[in-house]
Amino acid sequence: MSSNFLRSLSLATVLSFFAPISIVAGSLTGTWLLTCIPGIGTIGQIATNMLLDFLYTFGGGCPFQGMLTIAIVCGFVGALFDTYAFYSFRTQK
Fold this sequence. Notes:
Elements: H1 3-35, H2 41-59, H3 63-92
Helix pairs in contact: 1-2, 1-3, 2-3
């Protein structure tokens, strides 16, 4: 194994892990901020509850575990994709 492959694999895994965490955290922050605006606060509350229910599904009742489960799976898929791309590119040369 080359150092380029390990560097690429670790970078792809870390970025694929943190991308869904930042997306979910940003969505939760955005929907929470909507609850602070008069008139559309109920829409923000409904959206926040829907997002938390989605995370409850994957976390077995805990939204943090749901977010962590999604992030781990995305990190694993990112690593698999990077491995495939690296070896596919290597065999084409």
